[in-house]
Design goal:
Strand content: 15-25%
Domain Mur ligase C-terminal: 335-420
Number of strands: 20
Family: Belongs to the MurCDEF family. MurE subfamily.
GO molecular function: ATP binding; tetrahydrofolylpolyglutamate synthase activity; UDP-N-acetylmuramoylalanyl-D-glutamate-2,6-diaminopimelate ligase activity
Pfam families: Mur_ligase_C (PF02875), Mur_ligase_M (PF08245)
Low-confidence stretches: none
CATH architecture of the largest domain: 3-Layer(aba) Sandwich
Radius of gyration: 23 Å
CATH topology of the largest domain: UDP-N-acetylmuramoyl-L-alanine:D-glutamate ligase
Largest sheet: 11 strands, mixed
CATH class of the largest domain: Alpha Beta
Strand order of the largest sheet: 9-8-7-10-6-11-12-13-14-15-16
Number of domains: 3
Helix content: 25-40%
EC number: 6.3.2.13
Length: 421
């Protein structure tokens, strides 16, 4: 592809060379340098890849995108473009490289502190029940039409993301449901993507610390960016942070909740339990006054909120009531209060809860089912905020009958130090 076509929609200054240059691929990792590629130099939290520009050029890179000035000595014959934001440029050029596939599918983005994965799965289940062919991206990886692949990030880097969109489109998908993390928004991984529907689940302090967000206000602000790049925002009106998060939004809003005047409001929640089943039923009142009974095969109040979000998205996208009802009733999510059937004498659940808020929400939910004994096995990741460790430890000490501490991806820290915290 010609560099001129690749840079369509990108604001840049031509430092040297020609836009008529042929480009074979885009890279942002200097280790993938090869003849004909365009190397996008990114200022990272640990390294500045501008330092590797000359090395990439020596290996045959046809063009460079830089964010700050570099030494051009020895770069004769290499086209150099300068941009204000190389991450955004990478996203826009990656979209152009793969033919901007997201523009040819219905796009649904889900953001929030808790519930993104479960809500995304519920939305997919509803839309598939309505006959749509859905590709999904999130914490549990990439899945589409019976296929599954793992991913490194909840929201992949923009090049990989656009490549995934292209794969979805070529496979016949007409809809994408994806988790949109605050990091994904802040680092422009979703740059250039316009969502038909954006979903907000809830917000609480998380991902605040070195390499993440400087403050809760910054974290909230980046979450809110989704509602400046979507057509319809489906939002949890009960969350106390909703108004602040939506400041500056440009989308039409559809609300859901249990305790306020929501467009889609749940009531009459009833917990269901057997030795191999935990779930909940409730009734939803719609904007026109009609009511729908809903059953979800996942426990607790948070499952009601997740299901309400999925129901509202289904309504916005024209899913029939039967598809919404069936899609929610049969949805099960790996690692999200996932029931493991082993014995009639006890119930085992797997859950991704990894901070104080999600752990408290989970244990509060399980306590509502009146278990004879509640045992929690948990660990905390290394090289992450120590506040998570203190919070999870306090919550488990207060709410569990017995706690077992174990290893959970210690990264570069000693397991003993993590457990001591």
């Amino acid at each position: 592809m010609k560099l001129s076509a690749l840079t369509e929609g990108v604001r840049f200054a031509l430092v040297q060379g020609s836009l008529d240059t042929d480009i074979t691929d885009i890279i942002y990792d200097s280790r993938r340098a090869a003849p004909g590629v365009l190397f996008v130099c990114i200022v990272g939290t640990q390294r500045d890849s501008h330092d590797y520009a000359a090395d990439c050029a020596a290996k045959g890179a046809a063009a460079l995108v830089i964010q700050h000035d570099i030494d051009l000595t020895g770069l004769d014959g290499v086209t150099v473009l300068k941009v204000e934001n190389s991450r955004l440029a990478l996203a826009l050029m990656s979209g152009n490289l793969f033919g901007n596939p997201s523009r040819r599918m219905t796009m649904v983005g889900v953001t929030g502190t808790k519930g993104k994965t479960t809500t995304a799965h519920m939305i997919r289940s509803v839309l598939e029940a309505a006959g749509r062919k859905v590709g999904m991206i999130g914490t549990n990886g990439v899945s589409y039409l019976g296929r599954h692949e793992e991913t490194a990030n909840t929201t992949p880097e923009s090049y990989e993301l656009q490549k995934i969109f292209r794969t979805f489109l070529d496979a016949g998908c007409d809809t994408v449901v994806m988790e949109v993390s605050s990091q994904g928004l802040m680092m422009d991984r979703v740059g250039g993507v316009r969502y038909d529907v954006g979903v907000f689940t809830n917000l609480s302090p998380d991902h605040i610390g070195p390499g993440e967000h400087a403050s809760f206000e910054e974290y909230r602000s980046w979450k809110g960016q989704l509602f400046r790049r979507c057509g319809v925002g489906v939002v949890n009106i009960d969350d106390p942070n909703t108004d602040a998060l939506l400041e500056g939004h440009t989308c039409r809003l559809v609300s859901y909740g249990m305790h306020h005047a929501a467009d889609y409001r749940a009531s009459g929640c009833e917990l269901l339990r057997t030795h191999d089943f935990l779930g909940v039923t409730f009734r939803v009142r719609e904007p026109d006054g009609r009511e729908m009974d809903v059953r979800v095969n996942m426990p607790g109040e948070f499952s009601v909120y997740n299901a309400l979000a999925a129901l509202a998205v289904g309504k916005v996208l024209g899913a029939p009531d039967a598809a919404i009802h069936d899609g929610l009733a049969r949805c099960v999510v790996k690692g999200r209060v996932e029931l493991v059937p082993i014995s009639k004498r006890f119930t085992i659940l797997l859950d991704y809860a990894h901070n104080e808020v999600s752990t408290e929400s989970l244990l509060t939910t399980l306590r509502a089912y009146r278990p004879h004994r509640l045992v929690v096995v948990f660990g905390c990741g290394g090289n992450r905020s120590k506040l998570r460790r203190y919070g999870m430890g306090e919550i488990c000490a207060k709410m569990a009958d017995f706690s077992i501490l174990t290893e959970d991806n210690n990264r570069f820290e000693k397991v003993e130090d993590i457990l001591a915290d």
